[in-house]
Amino acid sequence: MIAMILAAGRGERLRPKTDTSPKALVEVAGRSLLERHLDAIKAAGIETVVINLGWLGEQIVARIGSGSRYGLDVIYSPEGDHVLETGGGIHRALPLLGAGPFLVVNADIYTDMALPTHDLADGVMAHLVLVPTPSHKRGGDFDLVEGRVRNSDTPELTFSGVAMYRPSFFAACAPGRFPLAPMLRSAAAAGTLAGSLYCGLWEDVGTPERLAALNRG
User: Fold this and answer.
1) Cα 86 to Cα 142: distance, rounded to the nearest angstrom
2) Residue 14 pLDDT > 80
3) Is residue 4 within 8 Å of residue 167, measured between CB atoms?
4) Which end of the chain has the least Cβ crowding within 10 Å, N or C?
5) Whose CA is closest to 190, among 215, 209, 216, 172?
6) Which residues pair with 106 in a beta bridge?
7) What is the tens place of the pLDDT at every residue in 33-81?
8) What's the angle, vertex CA 134, arms to CA 194 and CA 217, rounded to 5?
9) What does DSSP say about strands 126-132 and 193-197: parallel, antiparallel, or unpaired?
């Protein structure tokens, strides 16, 4: 299995810190979010990682390099000044992600979860890890019913930013900029989206206040 870390975003909500540093290199307790994800990917037994690049992506290349010091083979998928959003970024990287299911991790989360690497069941196009909806969020994204992710008028769970996808999940997509969320909702409606619930440490490092709280421990 190959992993992808989504690291191209501008990190608007973390400004001014992200005016001079990509959000993936924001540090918690002296170690960047990106390097923490690389450690977790290595611990999961994965050897190859694709990182997409956008805002200040050259800093990521300078810090991570080939990935050899992390025991990994790192490949970059540059998007330049025209960041492709989550769906478009994954679609652009598909030639680098292999023929089988692959893992995707959002760079701007902080968690100690063991990353999923299991096989996807027949008829399942993707597997999302969900978490309890944090108090700062107005509402959840999905519900989880007997191992399947479901849409709901009052969803109780939030997508963690960790998922596995079959390449065929993106088969009908055209190159370019597009979001992932509508595709996930369609798959949930079709019953082809599996999921699991993680109740341990997880935080969306989306604001200076949440970052400061993590650094305070």
Assistant:
1) 18
2) no
3) no
4) C
5) 172
6) 6
7) 999 999 999 999 999 999 999 989 999 999 999 999 999 999 999 998 8
8) 115
9) parallel
Domain containing residue 74: CATH number: 3.90.550.10
Distance of CA 193 to the CA centre of its chain: 16
User: Does residue 101 carry a pLDDT above 90?
Assistant: yes
Residue type, 50: V
Domain count, the chain: 1
Report the sign of the C-alpha dihedral through residues 188, 192, 198, 203, in that order.
negative
User: pLDDT of 129-168, one tens digit each?
Assistant: 999 999 888 899 999 999 999 999 999 999 999 999 999 9
Amino acid code (one letter) for 173:
C
Q: How far is CA 21 from CA 54, 62, 172, in A?
A: 11, 12, 35
- Domain extent, residue 167, equals 2-216
CB–CB of 163/194 below 8 Å? no
